[in-house]
Amino acid sequence: MGDEIILLDFWPSMFGMRVRLALAEKGLKYEYKEEDLRNKSPLLLEMNPVHKQIPVLIHNGKPICESLIIVQYIDEVWHDKSPLLPSDPYQRAQARFWADYVDKKLYGLGRKVWSTKGEEQETAKKEFIECLKLLEGELGEKPYFGGEKIGFVDVALVTFSCWFYAYESCGNFSIEAECPKLIAWTKRCKEKESVSSSLEDPHKVHGFVMGMRKRFGIE
Amino acid sequence: MAEEVKLFRTWSSPFALRIVWALKIKGIEYETIFEDLSDKSPSLLQYNPAHKKIPVLVHSGKPIAESYVILEYIDETWKETPLLPEDPYERAMARFWAKFGDDKVLTSIVWGVFIKEGKEQEEAMVEAMKNLWFLEEELRGKKFFGGERIGFVDLALGWLANLINILEDVAGQKIVDEDKFPLLSAWMKDFANSPIIKDNWPPRVQMIAKFRALRDAKLAAAASSK
């Protein structure tokens, strides 16, 4: 009996992309359902009544919500192929810590970078770069956060990279100038088919962000 | 060689309390280092440079930070009395409810209802009630969130069992009404009185003073910004 896997998602979501990437790494077939977040489907409301958010993974009818929880679930169920978390408990704790760090810091700061102006935006830009620099330090000389292969932290962070062009354009700064090693890492990741097929086109994301700015009256 | 386990904490942090419970439930010997967050020790800053927060667990010299990361590390390293279930789907659900507890329940109660008054508080109560209702539903047919015995989600939400009463006293506002939330109320009592848990609550008088000061400060700040 085959597994039935459905992903409820929204194309520009860096959180949804994490799940697409994890599924691709494991070589899993699934049905992708695009949600209109201004008109959420009955299925989404039924599968995630608590948050009514994407991504939601539905595996043989059972929903799993929250992107990093979904990625860990995928890693545990399909543990034989391309493990994302290491086997050593301390290394696992470090991976979970840094993935959590990405969640706690980057989305909020990135959002401020594209949706605010003046001093608020300058502060957000500064903090955003500081966070990326800390992550760059954590990467060190390793090819990936996961070591020789991509791992949990790579999955958690690389999906933000297709938003970098939008952040840079709105904030008028260069991430590569500040964090060259991190950008080199994003390019290295994108050489993998699983990554390049899961990330959205940065220009398309930029267009989406411009549309959002217009809707919120930010100019 | 004895493994050295140290826990950096404060006397009142509900996040650190989770770690105390987990260590004691598993019978792990450890040393406590109390931190004054207004004067953080060089050790804390060295062990958690990213957030500079407690709790931090240091095991044989290696630091782990963030309470849920620490709990999973403890569960994977000391396998007796497991906190997380074995089944991947049940594990995902446990992680989901733990995250919901911090992101929504704690936020809506402490930073929503507790530090507000009047109409603002009424609005915050609506959100808090919605969140508590999900917990009530999740308890249906179970004694603890973990089933027959205390598990990961019970430790994650355990702060409710002690703090709610304190917040209600200070704010003069009922938050978890027994009539509205019979299962949650029963769980709060069962959890609070469980072995190990009942011996490790922070002192009530100090908690009342701390939260009274917090509420007064927040209300004053809100009033002066109007």
From TrEMBL, chain A:
Known catalytic reactions: RX + glutathione = an S-substituted glutathione + a halide anion + H(+)
Entry's EC annotation: 2.5.1.18
Annotated GO biological process: glutathione metabolic process
GO cellular component: cytoplasm
Molecular function per GO: glutathione transferase activity
InterPro entries noted in UniProt: Glutathione-S-Trfase_C-like, Glutathione-S-Trfase_C_sf, Glutathione_S-Trfase, Glutathione_S-Trfase_N, GST_C, GST_C_Tau, Omega/Tau-like, Thioredoxin-like_sf
Protein name: glutathione transferase
Organism for this UniProt entry: Vitis rotundifolia (Muscadine grape)
From TrEMBL, chain B:
Reactions catalysed according to its record: RX + glutathione = an S-substituted glutathione + a halide anion + H(+)
Domain GST N-terminal intervals: 3-82
Cellular component GO terms held in the UniProt record: cytoplasm
UniProt entry tagged with the keyword Transferase: yes
Matching SUPFAM superfamilies: GST C-terminal domain-like (SSF47616), Thioredoxin-like (SSF52833)
GST C-terminal domain mapped to chain residues: 87-211
Protein name, as recorded: glutathione transferase
Originating species: Vitis rotundifolia (Muscadine grape)
Highest classification ranks of the organism: Eukaryota, Viridiplantae, Streptophyta, Embryophyta, Tracheophyta
